[in-house]
Design goal:
alpha+beta; 3 helices; Jelly Rolls
Length: 236
């Protein structure tokens, strides 16, 4: 593959990497990273309309409400947790309807109503030449160096629960399916995970320091709409 097609694929891969962009750790994280309005901010993706995020009370909880309309962007908080202090994380999300025809394994349909992201630092010099090129392009597009690796927890329309999906754009983003299909729609779904175990399973190695957490609801590839609510992301 050469010429414009290769350039477009590299640009798309670089844009995907910007979802977890985070500079070196500079923000201590409390036991609950989801402190309302403290440190959270929008992160856009090059060439994409932005999903709307706002603080909202939902079912008696303080939540981030996400509304996507043919859009893709992230709501992020930088953190600083050394690798040897990584333990369990827990969070909840609510989705009332799926995105028709969305499929995270298909680049042209890779949307999800709910994603929770964890971005990790690492030695970029260990990456392939292609990945280093994409990292440099992502840095040029955003002014921020992308993380070494991003682990996502996702709600997919059909993939088996607990399956691992490697991003169609870059293998530096890997996704673990926590909810699938219509089961659980209209309810709060609570999840508790071991970041170290899940990172090892997804990437085949130990994680580095955690440098950012985020949520993302996107419906750009399917040109549709999506809505989700997220409540506390906690660490212990």
């Amino acid at each position: 593959m050469t010429g414009p097609c290769l350039r477009r694929r590299l640009l798309l891969a670089a844009a995907a990497l910007t979802a977890g962009c985070a500079t070196a750790p500079n923000d201590d994280v409390p036991s609950a990273a989801f402190v309302p309005e403290e440190g959270w901010h929008p992160v856009g993706l090059p060439g994409k309309a932005s999903t709307h995020y706002q603080w909202q009370r939902k079912d008696g909880r303080t939540t981030i409400a996400a509304d996507a309309d043919r859009s893709a962007s992230m709501w992020r908080r930088k953190v600083a947790i050394p690798a040897d202090r990584l333990g369990q994380t827990s969070f909840s999300w609510r989705v009332d309807r799926l995105i028709p025809d969305a499929n995270l394994a298909d680049a042209d349909r890779a949307d999800a109503p709910a994603r929770v992201l964890f971005a990790f630092a690492g030695d970029v010099r260990r990456l392939s030449a292609r990945n280093r090129m994409m990292f440099e392009l992502a840095h040029a597009l955003t002014g921020e160096a992308p993380p070494f690796a991003t682990l996502m927890y996702v709600w997919d329309g059909s993939a088996p629960v607990d399956s691992v999906i490697v991003s169609t754009r870059t293998d530096r983003i890997r996704k673990i399916v926590l909810d699938s299909g219509a089961e659980g729609l209209g309810q709060w779904r609570h999840h508790r995970r071991s970041l170290v175990s899940d990172f090892r399973r997804a990437f085949g190695e130990d994680p580095g320091p955690l440098v950012a957490v985020g949520v993302m609801t996107d419906a750009d590839n399917t040109r549709s709409t999506a809505q989700a609510w997220y409540s506390p992301i906690e660490f212990d």
